[in-house]
Specification:
This protein has eight helices and ten strands. By secondary structure, it is an alpha+beta fold. The protein has two domains: about 1-70, no CATH class; about 95-130 and about 140-285, Immunoglobulins (Immunoglobulin-like, Sandwich), CATH 2.60.40. It is elongated. The termini are far apart. It comes from Frigoriflavimonas asaccharolytica. This is DUF6759 domain-containing protein. Keywords: Signal.
Length: about 290
C-alpha cells in the first residue's frame, strides 16, 4: 500500500511541471498559432495588456485561414463561430429563424410588385427619351431617379409630378463616410442589374428543389440606421447587401458556412451561420 501511494505521489510531481509548462505564456507575443493564442485569450485576465495585440492578431489569422481553406474543411464553421465571438458586441440584439412559407409568400408579392415597377419605369423612360437612329439604348442618370419619375407618372395626364428623391442621410448618420458611399452605391443599381436581381430572387422564391446549390438570405432591418450586411464564406466567396432602416432586403447566396457581419447603429454585429435553407436574419437597435 505504501509503495502504491509513493508511486502515485511521484506521478503527481511529474505531471505538475508539465501542466505548468502547458500554461506558460511567456513567449505568447511571438506566437502565430491560432489555438495557442485562443487558449491565452481564454485564460488571461480581462485587463491583461497583451489582449489588445493578440486579439486582432487572432482575428487576422483566422480570417486568413478561412480564406485559404478548402471548401470541405470541417474546421471552417468552428473558426467562423470563433471569429464571430471575437467581433461580436454583447449589446447587439439578433434573432435568427427559418424563413417560413408565409414569409416566402410575402416576399413573392414584394418582388412581383418591384418587377412591375421596373417594367413600368423602363416603358416610361423609353417613351420620354429622344429617339436615336440605329440604336435602342436608353440613357438614364440613375435607376432611383427613373423609379421616382415612374411612381409619380400619371397615365391620364401624361405628366410626371415633382417628387422628392429618397434621402438616406438621416438614418445613415452612424455610418462612416466610406460605408455611407458604399451603401448609396449598392442602393443605386442600374435598371438592368436591378431587374436581373429581382428576377433571380423571384425564381428562387418559387424554387423548392432541395438539390439546388443556392438559396435566399433575407435581412430584416428593425433598427433606426441604414446598414450593409457582409456575408463572407470560404475563399473569395463574399456578398454585400444594403438594407435601409426599418426595411428589408434579400440576396441569393450559395449554400455553405458564412460569417455575417455588420454595424448596427454603431454597434458591431457578427454571427456564424450555416445556410442550407432560406433564412431570415432580423437586426434591431442595440440596447
Amino acid at each position: 500500500m505504501k509503495k502504491l501511494l509513493f508511486f502515485c505521489t511521484m506521478i503527481l510531481f511529474m505531471l505538475a511541471p508539465a501542466q505548468s509548462r502547458d500554461k506558460n505564456y511567456d513567449k505568447i507575443m511571438a506566437s502565430k498559432n491560432i489555438y495557442e493564442i485562443d487558449a491565452f485569450l481564454r485564460d488571461a485576465h480581462d485587463n491583461d495588456p497583451r489582449r489588445k495585440i493578440l486579439k486582432p492578431r487572432l482575428m487576422d489569422l483566422i480570417g486568413k485561414y478561412i480564406k485559404d481553406a478548402y471548401p470541405d474543411d470541417q474546421r471552417v464553421p468552428k473558426l467562423q463561430e470563433k471569429l464571430a465571438l471575437l467581433k461580436k458586441n454583447p449589446s447587439t440584439k439578433i434573432s435568427f429563424e427559418e424563413m417560413t412559407e408565409t414569409i416566402k409568400k410575402k416576399q413573392r408579392i414584394v418582388y412581383e410588385n418591384r418587377l412591375k415597377e421596373i417594367n413600368n419605369t423602363s416603358r416610361y423612360v423609353a417613351n420620354k427619351a429622344p429617339s436615336t437612329a440605329g440604336t435602342s439604348n436608353v440613357n438614364t442618370s440613375s435607376y432611383s431617379d427613373a423609379l421616382t419619375k415612374a411612381k409619380s407618372y400619371s397615365p391620364s395626364s401624361g405628366k410626371a409630378s415633382a417628387v422628392a428623391t429618397p434621402n438616406y442621410s438621416a438614418s445613415s448618420a452612424m455610418m462612416g463616410k466610406g460605408e455611407e458611399a458604399e451603401f448609396a452605391l449598392l442602393m443605386n443599381d442600374s435598371p438592368v442589374e436591378h431587374k436581373n436581381k429581382t428576377v433571380q430572387l423571384l425564381n428562387k422564391l418559387f424554387d423548392n428543389d432541395p438539390s439546388s446549390k443556392d438559396c435566399i438570405v433575407m435581412i430584416e432591418n428593425k433598427s433606426d440606421c441604414d446598414m450593409i450586411v457582409r456575408i463572407e464564406g470560404v475563399g473569395n466567396t463574399k456578398y454585400r447587401l444594403a438594407v435601409p432602416a426599418h426595411n428589408e432586403n434579400s440576396i441569393v447566396v450559395q449554400k455553405g458556412d458564412y460569417l455575417f457581419t455588420s454595424v448596427v447603429c454603431g454597434a458591431q454585429y457578427a454571427s456564424q451561420k450555416t445556410v442550407q435553407k432560406a433564412i431570415m436574419v432580423s437586426l434591431s437597435n442595440p440596447k
